[in-house]
Design goal:
This is Transforming growth factor-beta receptor-associated protein 1-like isoform X2. It comes from Priapulus caudatus. It is found in: Cytoplasm. The protein is about 40% helix and about 20% strand. The chain contains 28 helices and 33 strands. A hairpin with a 2-residue loop joins strand 13 and strand 14. It is elongated, with a radius of gyration of 56 Å. About 30% of the residues are buried.
Length: about 850
């Protein structure tokens, strides 16, 4: 987009027939528009009859290159006088290399065309025009442009590209010279703009391919130029502006009689037959704002992306481009296009508070944020967009919730985390309870006072409690939860007694734990006691030192007291008599209560007694006499038997099991349990007592009982589990019993006796063999001689032996007695020849074992 300056003026130089006229001009702002004030500074009469065809300035050299009368001349810019030291170059047209590859900054590369179908390359310095080389062409050149080592040429009917280094010619495309005016303009590195058929502007690279779509220009083309990202084309009536981004016409300017249109050092000038005008491009920022105002988002963004080449630094351009994306995002937002808006907001790094400010009552009262200046949009709030439509209002709120949730963990939100989290809490309080609870527990920075009011308004008491807990105010959180469970506040499906017990279990503040323990125990004793049984402080279980206080507190809650004692005894395995005795008494009281209840299920009573019996059997830390008296009072015979066993009163225990309960299996089990880990004689005595109980006659003289006892005795004798001293049992068995009744016992006893006798013999033989071997080894070592001469030296000090006493080790090392620190360790190799083994039970060293022959000390034998 451009504006035309209608003031007369000139820029640099103007040719008027045989004159060259120099103008200077000043660029000024007049009535908000760019204008020029021009002044003629000098002129030069060339003295030739033919007009000037081309005029180009070599600013670095302060020289003008002028083509007229079939030649190129060089003039000085200072006085427009010819440079006499520079020879002229024959040419019908010429061009300068706009991307020279020369290393000399004070030279210009020039290409000329001749009537001989040739191109000539020159190097132009301050005072010389030096010919480099020439290139043959297949046809006459009409116009051309040069970039680096490539020249794009319009022949009379064909466009070609030539590589000056290799003279390689690449055909581009043909054109009809009768309908198409050929133009060649360099637009970028190794890229040219060509006028093609049907008024098409074709882009061609040095390799002969087109990397951009063509631009459809006006008919009867008179001149073209390129100023990124626009192509300007002119005919007798108009100047058109096309964008190379989308190939669309962006502007048309009325201009009659146009002759020349060109871009010179970033400025565009257009000349008619008598006047020169400046064409001032509208700044791309203004163009973009105009496109945004027309809601042409795509065009605005495309133009912004391609405006990076306008000389801005990368950081400055990125900042401007982000602002444009934000503006475009708010336009899409206002038009209900949420997916486009969120992408623009993210890529433009929009401040989340700018979006939140469009929603009434979502910004925290403590925020001092003000909207961006200059404004990114003209929206007051979303009510201006939705016009009270509740459906659209809900969609806009959902958009904000999704957008904030998506960017919440990004780095750019760190500065406004409080506003973002406060807005999300308020939105979720109205929309989604599940996400609300997750949010308030995930490092939520929301304004507490602001959110408390909103959460209470919407009845989100559970979320409010979680927010208090996340902020470290567990007391307020527990108060809300208890009020919810007591029915004072609206409840939540997630909050129940189990949830409350879980929270209190994790409490590390002992004051809070005791404060709410009574409340929880009244609700549910089993769950309440978990406050003490599952309590942990920094990963460690609750200190047992607090157990007395807990037991005192739980006296009002018998079920919780029982659970806590079980925790101390079975989980913590505390071997304290008072805990074990207290637990056993509670078990007995429970059994007593069940026995007094008439409608008690038999299974409940059996389970209670089984727990009591297991505890009595497994534990040894309780006071047996107290429990025995209680058990006898309650007539708990099985329990009495266990307690008698703890007192080593096995006869009384077996008497109860055999004669009172007549539970022979329990009696045998009793013997098996109490025999574990005991000596052989103890086991024999225990089973002998049971056999004696079986063999004794029942007190009531009942024959069936006597028969059952005899069968139990026979079964016990023949059982492989029982262990007896055979001689004692034989004295106990009645003489009138047939051998067949105890045949298995007799066979097993005889075999065991024979086996033990034979094992003794084997052990004796092995011991004798070991002793004989030791005696042989000792004799072998003691009888071994060592010859020591006067020339032999000690292996340690390397001095000769002067004393008949020396040490010889099993590995052959011989040393002085005083050179060895230890008789069992070789002083040279450090090898150990004798080790002390610990006693298998006490762990104290009681004997030594030699790995090799013991150290010997033979006398010196004279040689």
């Amino acid at each position: 987009m451009i504006s035309q300056n209608h003031q007369r003026g000139g820029r640099n130089y103007k040719s008027n027939n045989r004159y060259i006229i120099e103008y200077s001009f000043d660029e000024k702002m007049l009535n908000g528009r760019t204008g020029y004030e021009s002044h003629q500074t000098k002129h030069r009469f060339l003295g030739q009859k033919k007009p000037v065809n081309q005029l180009k300035a070599a600013s670095a050299l302060y020289r003008l290159l002028v083509q007229f009368d079939g030649s190129v001349f060089m003039l000085s810019m200072f006085d427009l006088e010819p440079v006499t030291t520079a020879s002229k170059a024959k040419a019908t047209s010429f061009c300068l290399n706009e991307n020279p590859d020369s290393n000399n900054p004070f030279s210009v590369q020039m290409c000329t065309a001749s009537k001989k179908k040739q191109l000539h390359l020159f190097t132009v310095t301050e005072d010389r025009i030096m010919h480099d080389h020439e290139i043959q062409l297949p046809d006459l050149p009409v116009t051309m442009a040069m970039d680096g080592s490539h020249i794009c040429i319009a022949l009379t009917s064909q466009y070609i590209v030539i590589n000056c280094d290799t003279n390689r010619l690449q055909d581009l495309f043909p054109y009809d010279s009768e309908t198409t005016m050929p133009f060649v303009k360099r637009v970028a590195k190794e890229e040219f703009l060509l006028s093609g058929p049907s008024a098409l502007g074709m882009f061609a690279s040095a390799s002969g391919i087109s990397q951009r779509p063509p631009v459809h220009m006006i008919d009867n083309l008179a001149s073209i130029c390129y100023s990124h990202p626009y192509v300007l084309a002119m005919n007798e009536q108009f100047i058109t502006v096309h964008s190379v981004i989308d190939q669309q016409q962006k502007q048309i300017i009325s201009f009659n009689g146009g002759r020349v249109l060109g871009e010179f050092d970033g400025r565009i000038f257009v000349a008619s037959a008598r006047e020169v005008y400046g064409v001032v491009p509208v700044p791309w920022e203004i163009q973009i704002q105009s496109l945004l105002a027309d809601k042409r988002i795509t065009e605005a963004l495309d133009l912004a992306r391609n405006s990076y080449k306008t000389g801005l630094t990368k950081d400055r351009f990125n900042k401007i481009y982000e602002t444009i994306q934000q503006q475009a995002g708010f336009i899409e937002f206002s038009q209900h296009r949420f997916s486009e808006a969120v992408e623009l907001f993210k890529s433009g790094l929009v401040d989340a508070r700018e979006v939140i400010s469009l929603y009434p009552l979502l910004m925290p009262r403590s925020s001092n944020y003000t909207r961006a200046v200059p404004a990114l949009h003209d929206l007051a709030d979303i009510r201006q967009i939705t016009h009270g439509n509740q459906q659209q209002m809900s969609e806009y709120k959902q958009f904000l919730a999704d957008f904030l949730e998506d960017i919440r963990e990004t780095r750019r939100v760190l500065a406004c985390r409080e506003e973002v989290d406060t807005a999300l809490v308020k939105l979720y309080a109205e929309m989604d309870t599940d996400k609300l609870c997750k949010l308030v527990q995930n490092n939520c920075k929301a304004d507490l006072s602001d959110c408390t009011e909103v959460l209470q308004q919407h009845g989100r008491y559970h979320a409010l409690a979680l927010l208090h807990r996340a902020r470290g105010d567990l007391n307020s959180a527990l108060a809300l939860w208890t009020r919810m469970l007591d029915g004072e506040l609206e409840g939540d499906p997630l909050v129940n007694i189990k949830y409350m017990a879980k929270i209190l279990t994790s409490v590390t503040d002992q004051h809070l734990m005791w404060k709410y323990a009574d409340w929880l125990l009244k609700k549910d004793e089993k769950l309440g006691v978990t406050m003490f049984t599952c309590q942990s402080v920094d990963g460690a279980e609750l200190e047992p030192a607090q157990a007395p206080a807990v037991l005192e507190f739980l006296q009002r809650y018998p079920e919780a007291l029982l659970k806590y004692l079980e925790y101390l005894v079975f989980s913590l395995r505390l071997e304290k008599e008072k805990y074990h005795t207290h637990l056993a008494l509670l078990y007995m009281n429970n059994v007593q209560n069940l026995m007094k209840t008439n409608n008690t299920e038999q299974g409940l009573l059996e389970d209670a007694r089984r727990r009591l019996q297991t505890m009595l059997q497994d534990s040894s830390a309780y006071r047996v006499h107290i429990l025995l008296g209680k058990a006898q009072e309650l007539e708990l015979s099985a329990e009495c038997a266990i307690l008698h066993g703890k007192l080593e009163e096995h006869e009384q225990a077996l008497e109860i099991l055999v004669h009172r309960l007549r539970d022979y299996a329990a009696a045998e089990q009793y013997c098996s349990v109490n025999a574990r880990g005991r000596s052989r004689s103890y086991r024999h005595k225990l089973f002998y007592n049971l056999l004696t109980a079986y063999m004794s006659q029942p007190a009531d003289g009942n024959t069936e009982t006597a028969k059952a006892l005899m069968e139990a005795a026979i079964s016990l004798l023949n059982s492989s589990k029982a262990e007896f001293d055979g001689a004692e049992v034989l004295r106990l068995i009645p003489e009138d019993w047939p051998i067949s009744l105890v045949r298995q016992f007799l066979v097993r006893t005889v075999r065991r006796s024979q086996h033990e006798c034979r094992m003794k013999l084997v052990e004796q033989a092995l011991a004798q063999g070991a002793r004989a071997g030791a005696e042989v080894a000792t004799a072998s070592v003691m009888n071994r001689s060592e010859i020591v001469t006067e020339d032999r030296c000690c292996a340690v000090c390397h001095k000769p032996f002067r004393d008949p006493q020396f040490l010889r080790y099993p590995n052959g090392i011989v040393s002085h007695i005083h050179c060895s620190n230890h008789r069992h360790i070789c002083p040279v190799t450090g090898k150990l020849f004798k080790v002390i083994l610990p006693h298998p039970r006490s762990g104290s060293p009681t004997k030594t074992t030699s790995f090799q022959s013991s150290v010997t000390k033979p006398q010196i034998r004279e040689s």
